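protien #1 (seq + structre)
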Amino acid sequence: MSNQTTLTQFLLLGFSEVRELQILHFVVFLVIYLAALLGNILIITAVVIDHHLHTPMYFFLVNLSIIDLGSISVTIPKSMVNSLINSSSISYAGCVAQVFFLIFLMGADFSLLTIMAYDRYVVICQPLHYERVMNRRACVQMAASAWIGGILYSALHTGNTFAVTFCAGNIVDQFFCEIPQLLKLACSDFNFSEIGALIFSACIVLSCFVFIIVSYVEIFNTVLRIPSEQGRHKAFSTCLPHLTVVSLFVCTGIFAYLKPTSSSASAMDLVVAVLYSVVPPMMNPVIYSMRNKEIKSSLRRLTAGRLLTKN
């Protein structure tokens, strides 16, 4: 019987054992990863260099881009390497690190999405109070609370998960170390502390989600009173995609972590994991920035400036 003191590695689930499909998986993940890297790095560069973008909204956007860079780098590179070299192993320490950083960054990510919804609510529904409410100190404190809260949240879940004894093998039915799949390997059928932590986390996430929904309902009510059709279209084109990605992130995340785990791997588990861990970091730059005229004009100015410098 093996336990956590003798377990030195886990075996992650591959998308296929067919070599051609493994290469296809590598190429698809590589394209997604590079797209996410490029989009988020462009946002960070534009906001840091362009002083016109030194506002609360873009301050939070830079934090979100940094988190997205980290979260997509936790899962995808290891899966790509395993597909390329036809391997499935990850060390015990690597699995612990993967769980810690993924939960930390996902927690911070969702906290920032909630803060950004509040920022949009204040600027649209209470514009006269915006500078007082969203001052520099308040913005720094909000961002810091998101990062620190993510660390504490992750430490709780990581500690509870790896405090158990694993004696049901070392095969993880997922392409990264996911807590529900790891708990399937525990000697005990129930890890009450981690299950309790997951339920408590789901309550917090749902509360934040409700807060985001209520904020956007208030925003929509305010926007509908805007006489300019162009102004209404701009607000809706920004808010609706945001709500779509947040809803996808919350629903798939809760489904993955609270649904009863099956004894065998399923394609649904893989799809859900991709939807909450891979899609948001790739889509956030598109939704929050590439559709944003200020970001696009800033990138054009930066590009033009560099071309002029070269000439």
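ok now protien #2
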Amino acid sequence: MASAVWGSAPWWGPPPPAPARPLTDIDFCSGAQLQELTQLIQELGVQESWSEGPKPGPDLLQAKDFVFSLLGLVHRRDLRFPPQAELLLLRGGIREGSLDLGPAPLGPYARGPHYDASFTLLVPVLSLDGTGQELQPDVGSCYAWLFLPEQVRGTSVREAWQDCLGPPVPGGRDSIHPAQSKETPKDPQISVDQLHGDVTEAEAHESLEKSPSNVSVPELPQQDVTGVDFPSPLKKTNGDVTKAADVSPVPQPSEAREAWPTLCPAQVAAWFFASLAAVAESLFPVPGAPRLVHAARHAGVTTILLATPGPPRRLLLFDLIPVVSVAGWPQEARSHSWAGPLASESSSFYLVPGGGGTERPGASRWQLCFARQELALKTRIPVPLLQAHAAAQALLRPLVTGTRVAAPYLLRTLLYWACERLPALYLARPENAGACCLGLLDELGRVLEAGTLPHYFLSGQKLGAGDGAASLLRALALLRRDPARALRAAVEEAKAARKGGGLAGVGGGAH
């Protein structure tokens, strides 16, 4: 009997050759194999798991407890700082796009030479119920003015915040012009540090460091937290959110709003840093506790570096931001159908000291921030896409160090837009992580070229790329020529951070 054939080969012979892999398995721009890129992205995720996993290590928990205790000491020094607040802790610093502060000078910090992992902590100093007249939006922007009445529940709020007040805003809701803020009060300039021998800061900032005269400049001096007994009203973290009782909302007063002065975010940030610096100067070493080795203010952000006792010893960066918590949801904010209904506790937003720096005329405006909603959205994003975004941020990190470009948060916003535009099944397939990473970088390049990106939460508003967008676009084009090499470098950087070190060995000193 004649045997059946498959072409010219018998049916029991070898199978026919597999069809050629589609061209989508190769990056057209660089010629890199997407399978290799995906494997590198997954390896990067494994190496980063020590700081981003669901169960952080004891050194990270100890550092967080240190920061919460430090804020408790600040409250004992200045009662304007709320005794009980709901802190929001985010993985990743503002230089990794944790939230939107606009193009602002954020210091020369670079992961590897200066720190091993970073976090952002939003610290509410006031709370509003969102129904009063205290908040006045700046029409056509992402900013708002915050007015302070004379008294709230018999307490003179205006007198308490006298050193942080700005002038009233002329005009009503239909005719709003940016208010010129008062000159920011200058804290004592203890030193302008240089974090590494070959790194200098282009923007002036305030810093706190106590150092013996025989310590070399590149090495960061050390401070430690005291072990004195003090109350701990700021409760410990549970996941990404530190929960405690809410601050009492500000009631609606009867005084005419037009006569109220504004609360200036630039001066609030200066007060926050001065209060923390005063507490830090009084600390003394405690064996086995984290050590505060650096504190500085950049625009509206107070950045501190903590050295953990180890082993392994690590340097952790915390960006502390004084914010105003507002209950409710802005009328111009949009909903997000792809994510489904979010938890009711996310129906609030923040006012942060943004606006591109405290030296500009619009510095008395607060910037609207939706960090709580972003935290809720993150839980709905497929894991492969989150890995792709983390890899893209790792590639972007060395390109934006020391610049005023808002690219890290622009990249995060592109992540949300991708969830609306692309099928969920595509984003959830692990083998597509490489293509998603390249897609995010390509989209970022187009945004840098255009100069703006639609705001994800505020309809009709735009996010600006910043003054250095053109130079970053050129650097991004060079990176895109060989993404595999850049990813391999990011994996090695993550391995070094996993082992710890940061500034260890710089200047011949130990932490």
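DSSP finds eleven helices and 19 strands in the chain.
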